[in-house]
Design brief:
81% helix, disordered C terminus
């Protein structure tokens, strides 16, 4: 039998780095679509719509990826609970990477008509399916290898991946926007970030080829025959609570990284490059502070950090939209930064919190389904709802602030009903790095 506490720090460093790289690549795939949806997909694939309706339609295809994520968590969760966490990482990366490259090859509406948005819809669904399996596999493989006293810290490395993926995606877009004319970007430049996903997927597969299976999985005596059935029968309340609890994180993150781009460029006339720079700067800080927040979760507990993050989010949403509405880069950055700090207070510890809530035999399915259902509640609807609310209001989109505040209060109530899971009586020692 394996003892997770005997895994040496250098091994954990390699494992955490490989998990971080994989999640970064897969979230790059996911985010590059969101950025394209905010900037160019509406006119190219829904040209018969008004500018607002085209943006909403593009965001609707963006939301399909979130709807697919719970289905991906069921599919890959079954594999993870029956066959192991490691196979999930390879299969999910292949699916997400392949479908992302294909998005970059889809002709626009002018070339093939209604088939163009339909193809986008199918490929976005496949993207979501792959990402639905990615998070559970990467987080569990790291969390189940980690020593109990440092599980929060080590598990936070895959949580840095979304920030890195977002920066990669938008860095590529920003570079293209700075070197191409608007006509060139709309004609072919927007496709380049999708093609880059193919190179990143190959690199990710190489990094993950050396990973070993989770010791917790190897210690299971009887694997669940149908993991989803056990989760629905025995843990349905836990799944619903975790989904509701995580909704605010998705809502805030995609309000900042997706909706704000469309709002600033279309409603306020802020240049694409300026708004991307504001958001990217906030995400850099968020990524850098992820391990710090996770370390606090190891010391103070998972639940207190989540409650604090929800409360901070509820208090910050109205100031955030007011700062965004100024159109001033520094103030917009501060609005985004406050939201990202509240977000990471919660989500830095989620990678340790969710696996600890579920027993090992159904952990891959339960944690991933709860996590990705939260994505449907918070991420799929937010760009659509926020865009519609902003259109109905004045210059300051107070309706968006009210919506995000309401989601934060819902999540706060769900976190309040969840138990604490941080191991009790385990000394917190600094990891040896030699």
């Amino acid at each position: 039998m394996h003892d997770v506490r005997t895994v040496r720090a250098p091994s954990m460093l390699r494992l955490a780095a490989a998990s971080l790289a994989g999640t970064a690549i897969e979230f790059y795939d996911f985010f590059v679509y969101g950025t394209a949806a905010a900037l160019v997909l509406g006119p190219l694939f829904f040209p018969t719509f008004s500018p607002l309706a085209g943006t909403l339609a593009a965001f609707a295809t963006f939301g399909v990826g979130f709807v697919a994520r719970p289905l991906g968590s069921v599919l890959f969760g079954h594999i993870g609970d029956r066959r192991g966490r490691r196979p999930v990482l390879v299969a999910s990366l292949l699916l997400t990477g392949g479908s992302t490259v294909a998005v970059g090859c889809v002709p626009a509406y002018d070339a093939i008509g209604v088939a163009a948005p339909l193809l986008l819809l199918v490929l976005r669904f496949l993207q979501g399916l792959g990402l639905g399996g990615e998070w559970g596999g990467a987080v569990l493989l790291t969390a189940e290898h980690a020593p109990a006293e440092r599980r929060g810290l080590w598990s936070s490395f895959p949580q840095i991946g979304p920030a890195v993926g977002f920066l990669l995606a938008n860095g590529v877009v920003l570079g293209l926007a700075a070197t191409l004319t608007d006509a060139q970007f709309a004609a072919w430049g927007w496709r380049v970030p999708f093609w880059v996903a193919g190179v990143l997927a190959v690199a990710g597969l190489w990094l993950r080829s050396s990973l070993v299976e989770s010791p917790h999985f190897l210690e299971i005596d009887r694997h669940a025959r149908v993991p989803l059935a056990e989760v629905v029968r025995d843990h349905w309340r836990l799944v619903l609570l975790t989904a509701g609890a995580l909704a605010v994180g998705y809502a805030v993150f995609y309000a900042v990284t997706t909706w704000s781009l469309a709002y600033a460029t279309e409603r306020l006339g802020v240049s694409r490059g300026v708004m991307l720079a504001c958001v990217m700067a906030a995400v850099v800080v968020k990524g850098a502070l992820t391990p710090v927040a996770a370390h606090l979760g190891d010391r103070l507990g998972r639940r207190p950090m989540c409650l604090a993050g929800c409360a901070a989010t509820a208090l910050w949403m109205f100031p955030m939209v007011a700062l965004l509405a100024t159109g001033e880069p520094l103030l917009m950055f501060l609005g985004c930064l406050g939201a990202m700090l509240a977000f990471i207070t919660m989500f830095a510890v989620i990678a340790a919190y969710l696996p600890e809530l579920y027993e090992p035999r159904v952990r891959c399915t339960g944690a991933a389904v709860g996590y990705n259902l939260g994505g449907v509640l918070g991420g799929a609807l937010t760009p659509i709802v926020a865009t519609a609310l902003a259109e109905q209001g004045g210059r300051v989109p107070w309706g968006v602030g009210a919506y995000l505040t309401a989601v934060a209060l819902l999540s706060l109530a769900c976190f309040a009903l969840l138990p604490e899971t941080r191991p009790v009586g385990v000394p917190v020692a600094e990891p040896a790095m030699e």
